[in-house]
Specification:
By secondary structure, this protein is an alpha/beta fold. 41% of the residues lie in helices and 18% in strands. Strands 7-6-5-4-3-2-1-8 form an 8-stranded parallel β-sheet. The structure holds pyridoxal-5'-phosphate.
Length: 219
């Protein structure tokens, strides 16, 4: 069923949107089944769990960290992580850059934006993102690529609220791209949409959806 679930979602989102299969809390057998079904893009929200699973699975999996990241844990994922969706400070970006350099790699990063109407410790406001990108220190970070933004909508069944938040995030993305990334084509990704709201997100301009329960809970 895992393979069929993935195929169905891929058809819905279309070939221009990337599906990140969120494998947090799932046993290795589920990840292996996902891989065997031909899908190699996985998302985890905890460093230790990602490192453990990565060491036991094929090397050609693209690993995305989607949960909050502490600076002292960056070193564990720097050798292999493909993209970090949850960057929320300059200090964290500097640490990722340092560890990427040690590993002779470039690590893709998304800035996490706070859009939800609920208490959340993580994510930056629009002004904080601009402040971060205005900081001259950022120009020296040659081993990271700031590829776009990530956000999580309010956990509510009121689609009007969720849609308004996605539209806000898309507008932030457009403005940031115009102001800071006009002359390069690296700032292209907008990571938004989960099991309950991914089509809404895609219709609002998402380029990456992060889906877990919809794929595994009925498999
Ligand atoms: C768990 C998680 C997801 C996936 O959520 P589902 O509702 O299971 O699809 C997406 N993004 C983040 C940041 C998560 O922690």
């Amino acid at each position: 069923m895992i393979g069929a679930n993935i195929q169905k979602i891929k058809q819905q989102i279309g070939s221009l949107v990337k599906l990140i299969v969120v494998t947090k809390n799932r046993p290795l057998t589920d990840l292996q089944q996902t891989y065997d079904a031909g899908h190699k893009i996985f998302g985890e929200n905890r460093v230790q769990e990602m490192v453990e699973k990565q060491s036991k699975l094929p090397a050609d999996i693209e690993w995305h960290l989607i949960g909050h990241l502490q600076t002292n844990k960056v070193k564990y994922i720097a050798p292999f992580v493909y993209m970090i969706h949850s960057v929320d400070s300059l200090k964290l970006l500097e640490t990722i850059n340092k560890e990427a350099l040690k590993n002779n790699r470039i690590i893709n990063c998304l800035l996490q934006v706070y859009i939800a109407k609920e208490e959340s410790k993580f994510g930056l406001t629009y002004d904080e993102i601009r402040e971060l990108l205005d900081n001259v220190a950022i120009t020296n970070l040659n081993n990271i690529c700031i590829c776009g933004l990530m956000g999580m909508a309010t956990n509510t069944s009121d689609t009007a609220i969720v849609q308004a938040e996605f539209i806000t995030l898309k507008n932030y993305f457009n403005q940031i791209k115009l102001q800071y990334f006009k002359n390069n084509n690296r700032f292209t990704e907008l990571s938004m949409g989960m099991s309950g709201d991914y089509m809404l997100a895609v219709n609002c301009g998402s380029t990456m959806v992060r889906i877990g329960s919809l794929i595994f809970n009925n498999s």
